[in-house]
Structures are given as structure tokens and as C-alpha cells.
Amino acid sequence: MSELQGVRASAPQELRPGHEVASERAGSLDLLLTFEELADRASQTANDEDDRFDQFLFAAGLQQILDDYLHRDTYALAKVARNAKPVLGAKVGGGLSTAARGARAAGLRTRLAIRGNRAAISWGDELAPLVTRLAERIVAPGRPADAALDPALQLLTTSVDGLPRGLRRSIVRLPQCFRSFDMRPGDCEKLVRTLAERWPDRERPVLVVGLRSAGSWLGPLYAALLLEAGYQHVDTMTIRPGQDWLMHERSALADATAAGARVVVVDEPPRSGRQLALAAEEMRQFGFAHDSVIALVPLFEARGVPPRLGDVQHVVLPWSDWSVHDQLEPQAVLETLAELLPGSVEDVQRIDRPDQDRHRHRRGHVSAVFRVLLESESADPDELFVRVEGVGLGYLGRLNLTVAERLRDFVPEVYGARDGLLYRAWLPDEWSLRNRPADERDAARVAEYARTRAAKLAVPEDTSMRLDERDSVWELAAGLLGDAFGGAKSLVRPLVREASRRLLRSATPSIVDGSMTLRHWFSPPESRQLLKADFADRAFSNEEKSCYDPVYDLACAAASSRTSDRNEGFAEAVRAEYERATGRPVSNPRWLLYELVYHDQVDRRMLKTAIAEHGEALRLPDGLVRSCIDVDYAMSRASQRYFNQHFFTDLELPTSGPLCAIDVDWVLETRWGSFPATSPSGALALRALARHGYRAVLATGRSLGEVRERCRTYRLVGGVAEYGGALYDAVHDHVSVLLDSEELAVLDVVRAALSEQPGVYVNPFHASSVRAHRIGSNARPTGLEPETIQAALLSSGVAERVRVVAAASQTDFVPVRIDKALGLKALVAELGHEGFSAERPLALAVGDTVEDLPMLRLAELPAAPANAEPELQRGLEEISGWVSGQLCQAGLLDAVRRLLAHDPRECSTCKIRAPLDPDDELLLTILGALDGGRRRKLTQAARLAAQLRGARSSR
């Protein structure tokens, strides 16, 4: 665009006179306030319109915390009831589940007998009408002042000392409708206006049921609007669908049913509508007639209601009718900028695509770009390009201004904010760092940004560590750690949560950015100083992922850079620069877990959203499919780097010694959740071979690129890829393909046939075989169904020329001549073998499927772990092979022990030389659960418990 040349450079400068400074009014950088903090802020007198809205937000937050506290899941009994049977079996687990349900029901019945709970309920009964009165002051600002409101609220909110300590320390769940989305009270008014037209009876009682969390704020607003519209009897309550009901709630619902009340169910814009539908159904179960339950539904689409709400009476506000669009009209922007840039604005023109934005919108803030003409002493006016973006209402949005003020050297010029919209200099996509290689200078800038945030946005406490069931980063990391225990994940949940807290607790808590991908960094043409956009939205977003550790920001930037080979070295440089600038080393477990959380929660969540947007489309774009495959690859590479740091950095690539061939999947690596990873046993097995003069090579169905990566990471001399179709000599960095031209042509025919099957995707990384997937709504690849395989082979006409290797996450098609033995013979010829016959050139071979049998026949010691397929075990008997009693990597280590005639775990030559950091010991103990069955997993859990107990006692 030619007009881009006119964009004013965003050099650091003083905020303009019209800028709405937030530092005094915001009160706190941390939006995750406790009950006590909210009460303190709500008690302050409201002097103007902004203060009144903040006061409402604070008071409604008190209601949200209180209702959640009264419905808390004490001792996680609800989770025990749900998970005991699947984990422990029908007999033991079923009995435990029944006992947990009974204990929870008894606890709820007796909750009212506890004095603190009775006091909390009584306190809440006084708060609820005050919150509605605060909402009335917002929706009807012209009414005469309610002189008694502020004193009553102040009296109530200064009397919280007698409430239970657990309640007072509880932390608010933010109303994302007003923080991460661009809802306005005016949108609620539009919905109420439509409701009043369709159900005009003002005498009939109305019960507004708000779905927590957003319903704690929206419920009182809708109630105030209904009262303003003339409805005479309006009550409110909040629920979570499926919750256990307390006695006072049942009484309120019984009274409403007896009075013939109409129920209005409200929530923020739904994803699927499931929660609204469940709430409506619960209201019917309480006795409300089907036609008495109405859902008010704001949407991020121009038309259509979620199918789940088809059976529920509803009022819809399409995205195109949201009030925020009026604020983005050029005249409205001109008037606002005239206040923010006084005396200089002549004209405003929108230059992006508003029509497309009004049809459909992602779940998030609105944004628009404007060309602004400014007064000039010359004949031609100056121009400025301004981006207007939603940031949230009241104190929820003013945080963005506080961040901009304190980080002005790193962010685009900010002109100010009005009514939930921020006005700043536009940074065109052409300037994004994703459009050029990121170098060490960029890494230094990113590291300095993280360090500066940590200093200027510091907070006294890492609040996320006190959040429970809120998808904080430490909780997400705990979920990944729990995946190492497989089916025992639920049983070890308390242990991995404590371990995650220990591994990720920050010594320098601050308000993190949370949106550090390279596409949010911009490099203006006239400056090499990177600028950061989206600098405050993600810290407290609707996606949760709360974190207060600046290292999380760094790890996310590093992880995002690894998606392109152009950024080689950036990830290592950004970490090194931060460590140099702060003088504090970043622990390897912390770095690994943050990278894994980024890929699993940021990358995969974006992919899930993109897949959902394609709806019922038969084919997803190839780029989207490749990204789904890339996520697991990226997570696997992160775990490989971690093991490299502890097991392989002191090893040289061997140039001589007997050769040992090892399969990858379910031998060297197992599934850590969704991605393949080795374990301490697998890493020690490779290290022991190298330390005792053996040369290990891989023999796998994985792609040539994956074999090359693992050889570099694990210090291996080479490997056979794609079932023998290609090989890699790491000593000479040489690749060979063993397929002839006819076999390559056959594979091309198979690829074409598979591509014609609906919903089937061919993996782009495999060239000497064909790997095909389906992609589920969870953005994870799966294998093909037998009928799909048969249809593809039938249409290709080459069924007799390929064999099929089926697995859970993929289906492979391999030329019939090709096998791992063929590839290994070629690799042995290239690397050379020592001391063994041509018929058996390998000292050791370890595999687990019948595809590995030809490879095993080449070894003096053919071996398999206990998880090997029965057909392979029968084949091993014929060649005097050996089957370990251990699973996966533990079985591999057992085979190495048999070859070396000693246990590598007791060998000073095999062991890791450098002493382990306590955090590494903790993580490796957890990862030790990857390679075992239930007994081994429970053993590792016991070790973990002992380590945590020792850590607690040493404090």
C-alpha cells in the first residue's frame, strides 16, 4: 500500500494531553483481586461515571466469588466421584465413587450449619439488591441520585472481617464479556428491548438467572434494564449448570415457580450454546414451563443461533448489531481523536474491511484502522494511521494504558482510550517480525522487553499459584506432567500439581505479556528497534492461562520462533540474553514446561478454532493440516532438547564400534500425552551404549527429517527412516533413498488416491513412504479406518505393490520390497561394521512390532520390550531372541543391560557426570513414569511424593 509510507514513526515520546492516564484510577496492576481487595474498592465513593461503573464491577465481583465459594468442591469429592471408577475399576472405583457422592451430598446439607457459611449467605443476601441498584445507576444515569446506596454499600463492604478466611482470600473470575470481548450495557439494553416487545407482560415476575462467571455481572445489569423497562418484580440469582443446589437456592426457585415467574437465562457470547441449554433444562426440571424460559444470546456471528439452543426460546443479538460498531464509525473516531489530539484532526477515513468484520468476528476484541488527516502549516495535511482496538471497560481496560505508559520505549505510540477502546499508532502487517528472519539483535530486544516488564510491572505475589481449576499456566503444566502417568493421572494429581507449583514459582512475579509470538513484534522500516503490539490483552484474557513469570513470555517467544528455519539460533539467544541481563539462570525444567504449554495451549487452541470455523467442510487447507502435525513435532523436539542437555552434551559422535539398531516408537520413545518422547531409561540406554564404545542407529517408520533431528539430539551415527526407504549417515551428513523410480511412482499413485478420500490428508514430510491421517476436532492426527484404506487401495490399482502399516495416529503405505533390514544393510555398508558377520552385522537390535522382525534377524542379540506384539514375540523365539519383562524404554534399557552385562544405572561410566539440579531430579522422576505399567507408575509416584516431602521439610 503506498499510503503506508506516511505512517508516523512510533518513536518513544510523551503521552498526549488527551491521554486518559490509568495509573491512579486503576488501583492495582493485578486484575485478579481477592474478595477483600474488591470489597475495599467497592466501598470507595463513586464521584463520576467511570467510578460508578468500576464500583459496579467490584461489587458484582464480590457476588461472583461468594457464589463460587458456597458451591466449592471440598476435598475434590466431585472429581473423585467422576474419576474413581474409570481409574480403579468397577469394583474398587465404583465403591469409592459412591462414597464420594454421598460425602459430598452430606457436606452440602450440613454446609448451612456452619456459622461462617451462614454469615456468608446472609452477607450475600444483603449484597445482591445493592449490586442491582448499582446497575440501575449505570443503565439509568439520569435518575435522581440514590443517596442511601453508597452508605449502605460502604457499611456492608467494610464488614467482611467476620466472613470465612477462605472466602476473603478467594480470587475473582473476571467478566470476560467486559474484559476480553466488547460487550456494552447498551447491548444488554438491545436484548431487553426485544424481549419486552415479545413478552410485554410487566406484571408477571421475572427471575434473571446469570451463568457464572459472566452472569454475576450480566444478571444484575439485565435486571436493572428490565426494571427500567417497567417490569415490576425482578429477582436475580447465579448458577453453574450441573451444580449442587443449596437449601436457600431451592427455596428461592420454589417461590419463583409458585409465583409463575418467567426465567431469563443470561451469559456472555456462547461457543456452542451448551451451557445455556443445560441451564434452561435445569430450570424446567425445577418446574418452570417450557415457554417460560428464555435465553438472551449475544453472538459473534451476523446470523444463526447455536443448534443446541434450538429447543430454547431465545432472543439473539447478532454481532453486526453490537454497540461497539457505532464507536468505529469514522465520525465517532474523529470526535474521539479530536479530544485526544486537540486542535489537529481534520478528517478520518477507515481503510480496513468493516463489512467483513461485521459479518463474523473471532472471540476477542474488535479492531479497525483509520487514516487520519492532521492540520499542517503546509498546503498538504499530515497524515497519521491509527489503530483502534478494544481493551475492556472500566478498570479492566485501563490496565492497557498503565502498561503502555510504563513500557513506552517498547510499544507503539498510544494516543489515549475512551469507552473501552484504545487509540494507538498502527503497525502494518508488512512490518511483522514473522516476515523476516529474527536475529540475535531481535533476541536482545525481546529479552530486554521481558526484563523491563518484570521490573516496571512487578507485583508482590504470584496470584496464579492460588488459583484452582482456572487453567493457569502452572495447572496446564501439571496436566502435562500428569500425562506421564497415563491412566493413573487422576491418582497422582495432587503430586504433579505440587511439583508444577514448585517448578514454576517465580521469584520475580510481574504482569506478563502472554502474547509473545513473533507476529506480534514489529520492525518499522526506519528503525531496527522492535515494537510490541498486543501488549496487555492476554495477561487476563478469556483463555485464562494466568502466569506471573517473565520466563513464560521468553519461552513463548522462543517456541514461536522455532516454526521457521529462518530463525535458527533465536530461541537460544533470547534465553541467553535474558540470563545475561538479569544474572539469573533459567532452569531447564521451567523452560521445557513453558514451551510445551505454549505449543499445547496456544498453537493447538488456535488450530482447534480454525478447524471449528471450517464447520462441516470436507477438506481442511493443507497449511492447517500441516500445522496440526507440526504441533506434536514441536513438542517432541522440545523434550528431545531437554534430554540432550542432561544426557548427551558431553558425548562425541563415535566413528567406530559395534552397531546397535533401535526402533523409535514404543521402544526409544513413548507417548507423553499426544507427542512422542523418550524417558530417563531411554536416554540412559543410548548414553550407556555410547560410553561403552557402541554406535547406536535408529530404525523407524518416521520421516527422514525426524531421524536426522534425533541423530543430532541423541548423538547417534545414523538411522533408517520410513521403514527402510531412506537412510541418514550422521557422520558424513549424507542421505540415501533406496526406492527405485517405479516404487516412487507407485507411492505417487497412492498419494493421489488417498487425496481423493474425504477428510484424508497425506503427511508432507514422508517421501519414501506415504503417511496418511485424519485430523480430529482436537487438532490431533489419527489413523484411517479399514474401509477408507481399502477404498484408496482399490482406486489406486496398486494394492499388491504396497503394504499397510496401521497405527493410532497414522496409517503408512510402504513398497513391499522395502523393510528395515534392507535399509540397515545399506547403512551398515556406509558406516562399516566391526567384529560381526555379514549375516548378523548388528550387536543389538530392539523393536516391538512385526515390522521390526527383519531388522532383529540382523542382530547377535535380538530383543524386544514387554509391550512387543505377540506375533513379533513368536518370531523372536524362532531366532533365539529375548523379550524383556519391562515395557518400552525400560525394556530397551534392560536389553542394553543384557548386552553390556551390567546395569547402566549402577555404572559410573554410564551415569550422567554433572550433578542434577533438584528441579531436574523432580522432573526426571515424573518422566520416569513414561516407560512403565501401573506398578512402575505408582513406584515413580511414591518417589515423587518422597522428593516433595523432602523439599517441604528443607524449607
Supply the key terms.
34 helices, alpha/beta, eight-stranded mixed beta sheet, Rossmann fold, five-stranded parallel beta sheet, single chain, disordered N terminus, 955 residues, globular
Layout of strands and helices, then pairs:
Layout: H1 23-26, H2 35-42, H3 49-70, H4 77-88, H5 90-110, H6 115-139, H7 149-157, H8 165-168, H9 176-179, H10 185-198, E1 206-211, H11 215-228, E2 234-239, H12 247-258, E3 262-266, H13 274-285, E4 293-298, E5 313-317, H14 324-327, H15 330-340, E6 345-350, H16 354-359, E7 367-374, E8 382-390, H17 395-406, E9 414-418, E10 421-425, H18 440-456, H19 473-483, H20 493-504, E11 521-522, E12 531-532, H21 550-561, H22 570-582, H23 588-613, H24 622-648, E13 659-662, E14 670-672, E15 675-677, H25 680-691, E16 695-699, H26 704-714, E17 718-721, E18 726-729, E19 734-737, H27 741-755, E20 761-762, E21 770-775, E22 781-782, H28 786-796, E23 802-806, E24 811-815, H29 820-831, E25 842-846, H30 853-856, E26 859-864, H31 870-878, E27 882-883, H32 888-900, H33 918-927, H34 934-953
